[in-house]
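In response to the reviewer comment on reproducibility (Comment 2.3), we provide here a single inverse folding case reported in full, input and output, so that an independent group could reproduce the run without further information from us. The structure tokens appear first.
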């Protein structure tokens, strides 16, 4: 094995370790929970097609841009932009990213806690509780209204996230993802086979894969693009941070392709689990955010070994959420380590604690604080809205503009080809990062701006 330089910040040990960790960041509640319900609400196949196009023209180029900035500087997002254009306002992208990581993790930890709670519920409750979607929905509603339980599981989820991040990039994150990500794929394939062999599953496959273009409109296109963004963990420097732990030899272009393909594969597999199952049960695909928590338990109860399937499924969701939460916390922690010279342990304990505290009102938003609304939204919805609908799209668009026009595609190209790794799709990348991606993301942002106010 090659010996790494004694680098204080730590580097990924293996090429596969980096790819798995970056995939772990990308694959999360966004793929497993959000992608199926948005697809269900927006007409199925046609939405999926637009989503795939968005991945290719927005997600792919911006991910490569983030990896490149990260490896070039070996720094957190704030330090990275500062180093490439010192004394300019571009460092603001980095600050926005740290803030976005902070805000997203506060509510992501809450939903991560729900998934842990459902693992425990699957283990302990008899499946009779879930015989109908209505009964399962009522169970979900009573759970999220229970302050003590919600906070307990939220704390447990954040505790796990912090424990892994304390161990640092290869001690904790890399080792965890090495085991977790392949397990996830195996579990999904088992579930997909189970779902596809149910009576009536083919109706679901048709809904999911056959594009009905009459369902397309501007709003659907923009939602698909927003989903591509969130799902790939772009726009807040998560991939800058993970790229910053790369040794110079890594082939960035093929790593980008692997991560994008892997994230997309998981989302597509997830759809292949959910839609056949939903249609086989005679349920509606348009159930919304409650689809996973309210409908799937009822689906499982109708299956042989449903109890075990339920444990596997919610176990999967918890694993996927955890490997994304790790990257959200790592962005915040890397900033305090690099820029403020904090120790890793202190950074994790202090910032993890503050993020947990900020998450508490989000956790209570369906219960005690249900009626506490600002701008017509609960605390949870406000934080999600600010971070996901404003900070991520603006951050991604500015990153594309920065790399395409300010730092420049030429130095970026040189960094990508360091150590003679060939860049086969350079012409495509340079065109999309300069022209297509910034305009496309600006459209997402503007639509959200007009839609919300
Ligand atoms: N991509 C993650 C998911 O799909 C969420 C995430 C967004 C993680 C931004 C890191 C940064 O759940």
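Designed residues, in position order:
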């Amino acid at each position: 094995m090659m010996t790494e330089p004694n680098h204080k910040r730590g580097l990924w040990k293996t090429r596969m370790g980096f790819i798995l960790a970056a995939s772990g960041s990308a694959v999360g509640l966004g793929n497993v929970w959000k992608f199926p319900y948005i697809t269900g609400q927006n007409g199925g196949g046609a939405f999926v097609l637009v989503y795939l196009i968005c991945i290719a023209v927005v997600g792919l180029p911006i991910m490569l841009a983030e990896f490149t900035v990260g490896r070039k500087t070996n720094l957190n997002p704030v330090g990275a932009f500062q180093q490439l254009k010192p004394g300019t306002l571009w460092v603001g992208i980095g600050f926005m990213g740290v803030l976005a990581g902070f805000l997203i993790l506060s509510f992501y930890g809450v939903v991560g806690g729900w998934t842990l709670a459902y693992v425990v519920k699957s283990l302990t409750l008899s499946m009779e509780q879930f015989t109908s979607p209505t009964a399962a929905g009522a169970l979900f509603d009573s759970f999220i209204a229970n302050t003590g339980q919600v906070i307990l599981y939220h704390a447990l989820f954040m505790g796990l996230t912090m424990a892994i991040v304390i161990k640092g990039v290869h001690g904790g994150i890399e080792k965890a993802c090495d085991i977790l990500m392949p397990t996830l794929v195996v579990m999904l394939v088992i579930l997909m086979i189970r779902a596809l062999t149910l009576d009536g599953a083919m109706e679901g496959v048709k809904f999911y894969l056959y594009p009905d273009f009459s369902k397309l409109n501007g709003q659907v296109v923009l939602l698909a693009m927003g989903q591509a963004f969130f799902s790939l963990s772009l726009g807040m420097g998560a991939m800058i941070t993970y790229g910053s732990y790369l040794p110079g030899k890594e082939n960035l272009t093929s790593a980008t392709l692997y991560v994008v393909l892997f994230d997309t594969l998981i989302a597509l597999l997830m759809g292949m689990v959910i839609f056949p199952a939903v249609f086989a049960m005679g349920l509606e695909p348009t159930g919304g955010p409650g689809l996973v928590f309210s409908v799937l338990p009822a689906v499982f109860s109708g299956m042989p070994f449903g109890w075990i399937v339920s444990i596997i499924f919610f176990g999967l969701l918890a694993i996927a959420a955890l490997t994304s939460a790790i990257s959200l916390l790592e962005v915040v922690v890397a900033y305090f380590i690099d820029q403020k010279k904090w120790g890793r342990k202190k950074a994790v304990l202090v910032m993890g604690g503050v993020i947990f505290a900020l998450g508490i009102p989000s956790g209570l938003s369906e219960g005690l604080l249900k009626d506490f609304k600002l701008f017509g939204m609960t605390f949870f919805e406000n934080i999600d809205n600010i971070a996901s609908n404003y900070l991520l799209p603006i951050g991604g668009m500015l990153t594309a503009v920065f790399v395409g026009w300010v730092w420049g595609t030429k130095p970026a190209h040189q960094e990508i080809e360091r150590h003679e790794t060939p860049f086969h799709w350079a012409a495509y990348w340079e065109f999309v990062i300069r022209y297509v991606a910034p305009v496309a993301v600006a459209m997402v942002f503007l639509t959200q701006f007009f839609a919300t106010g």
